[in-house]
Specification:
Shape: globular
Mean pLDDT: 89
Oligomer: single chain
Distance between the termini: 19 Å
Number of domains: 1
Radius of gyration: 17 Å
Strand order of the largest sheet: 1-2
Strand content: 5-15%
Length: 213
């Protein structure tokens, strides 16, 4: 645990150092093209469902619409600004979450943090994805991401929770760079593997989340 935390902090420092010019240009571009707040803050559920505030670069025009009305934002959405389309395409909007990594609320790799009202609707099996810190990137994001359904992403996340290794994390990091430059790509074999794992857990009665929340 201490080793992974040290890796998170070191990795976040290295990443922020390397992308600091991009961060600066993004902040200026957001302010000049769509006056208003540079950052977007939102409550998410983290480890064991504990709430925390996630940081993102604002990619959408300021609005008062409920989240459910603007979720699953894709290219060309009318609320997304021109700069927002660019930073979302290359995942730049997620870079401020390095602050969440420093604070210990997130990890570099893990299931993406989700909304509290979604967590309230989780089944016992789905709640198992909350058994580790949420990440900047994860197995579901490099195995289909927005091109697969939420239940499918959650099954991939639970598979990752039960199979996490250093080498798997290295693979996720490498494939994250491919996603940034190439876009999402589905892997049916990974999804099949996750589905079969979910079925085995449920058949053996091992699909319950740890009772720490």
């Amino acid at each position: 645990m201490m080793f992974r935390r040290a890796v998170d902090i070191f990795g976040a420092i290295v990443c922020l150092t390397l992308v600091s010019p991009i961060v600066f240009v993004t902040m200026v571009a957001i302010y000049l093209t769509d006056r208003g707040s540079i950052f977007y803050l939102q409550e998410r559920s983290g480890l064991y469902g504990r709430p925390f505030t996630v940081f993102k670069f604002r990619s959408m025009r300021i609005n008062n619409l409920p989240y459910d009305d603007v979720t699953e934002i894709r290219s060309g959405h009318p609320l997304v600004t021109p700069v927002g389309n660019l930073i979302r395409r290359f995942k730049i909007d997620e870079l401020p979450q390095m602050l969440n990594v420093f604070k210990g609320e997130m990890s570099l790799i893990g299931p993406r943090p989700t909304l509290p009202d979604q967590v309230e609707r989780y089944t016992p099996f789905q709640r198992r994805r909350l058994e580790m810190r949420p990440g900047l990137t994860g197995w579901a994001q490099v195995s289909g991401g927005i091109d697969i359904t939420w239940p499918e992403r959650i099954m991939l996340d639970v598979w990752y929770v039960d199979h996490r290794t250093i080498w798997l994390d290295v693979l996720i990091l490498l494939q994250t760079f491919l996603v940034v430059f190439r876009g999402e790509q589905s892997y049916p074999d990974r999804l099949t593997q996750a589905i079969e794992h979910a079925q085995r857990l449920q058949a053996n009665g091992l699909d319950q989340a740890e009772t720490k929340y």
